[in-house]
Write a structure and sequence with these properties.
Radius of gyration: 27 Å
Pathway: Cofactor biosynthesis; thiamine diphosphate biosynthesis
Structural class: alpha/beta
Subcellular location: Cytoplasm
CATH architecture of the largest domain: 3-Layer(aba) Sandwich
Number of helices: 15
Largest sheet: 6 strands, mixed
CATH superfamily of the largest domain: HUPs
Number of domains: 3
Organism: Apilactobacillus ozensis DSM 23829 = JCM 17196
Enzyme class: transferase
Family: Belongs to the ThiI family.
CATH topology of the largest domain: Rossmann fold
Bound molecules: adenosine-5'-triphosphate, magnesium ion
Strand order of the largest sheet: 15-14-11-12-13-16
Length: about 400
Amino acid sequence: MVRYGELSTKGKNRKDFIQQLGNNVRHALKDFSSLHILAQHDRLHVKLNGEDSDKVIERLKGVFGIENFSPAIRIEKDIDKAKEFAVSMIQEQFKPGMTFKIKTRRQDKNFPLHTREINDALGGYVLNNVNGIKVKMKNPDIVLEADVRMNGIFLSSSTIEGAGGLPVGTGGKATMMLSGGIDSPVAAYLGMKRGVKIDMIHFYSPPYTSPQALAKTKELTAKIARFSGNVQFIEVPFTEIQEEIKAKVPEGYLMTIQRRMMLKIADVITRQRNCKGIFTGESLGQVASQTLESMMAINDVTNLPVLRPLVSMDKTEIIKIAEKIGTYDLSILPFEDCCTIFTPPAPKTKPDTSKARMFEGNIDVDDLVEKAVKNIKVTNIGPGDEFLNSQEDVFAELL
Ligand code: ATP
Ligand code: MG
């Protein structure tokens, strides 16, 4: 039994939200062929039909829009049956000294007993049949929920926390500038959490960056695809642009101009795909490219919204999320990123926008952007896909 999150407050959009969540849950569970999934107006039900509940529970934990959910048993609308099941469900988790309460909801107004009478009937029976258990109204150890609905009584005795957020797809589509670092995968996760469907854009510079570095970024994408379903991964060749910048732009502005070029290309790709914004993993003050002055000079090339979910987070907070979503161990593999290689020892921390525009005049921006966009490669990546699974890859890079 799945309880909806924030979407219950969304008034007239409610129907769309429920439909999208239903689709997302179906997608996340599509390889369990016996499941029956029913998205109703106040709850969503996943009927197991003999499928492995532990595996289904793990998958559900990654679906945004779910507040929490409870493994539940459906029985016929018979209070005596309910009593027997209540006792056996509580006995499963009872340890001496534990307290409980019954919490009843009655949707079927024709059921002969009222909410309170059901509480009393089930509670009394549990007290008489579970040795040593006590009732406690505030913060009991076990809450047994009885939900009397049209199609039966649902009993559940534990609640599992969901991923929260809004169903992916209800917030439209955006792109994400994804590197192989710690931050951008976390930012992508947070964007998805607010309901946005995200396509990844990754700039790579062979031979300065290795095939392993590219594989690592794809594998990071596969990790976060767990939260959104399949993700389009767009590789942008960036070598020529970086070489051109290196040759023609003063050292202090190398980083700024590289970032401007990246964002300009991202702008074109984002519009082509009918996406409505660009996410990045930037956080204020973290490195030279992430000062307000620098953001201003870089942001100058686009008027799409640039969304920075990590803007005010500390590195330690970001790492915590990276560990939680399972991207941290991959992110810290020491493969060179295209930016690190071309980063000068002392980039300007406060670049000037008009100077940036002027130095950019040294290179043929339009031609370079057009060529890069023409040569993108798109891969469709699913949850759990592997691109970097052998130890050999890792060692080859490190040697
Ligand atoms: P991250 O951990 O996400 O790599 P970072 O702390 O290394 O971030 P920067 O290198 O300054 O910070 O990158 C800032 C942001 O620019 C990244 O979060 C990402 O959104 C984008 N970015 C950097 N490198 C790339 C790349 N090769 N391809 C796509 N986007 C990139
Ligand atoms: Mg980085």
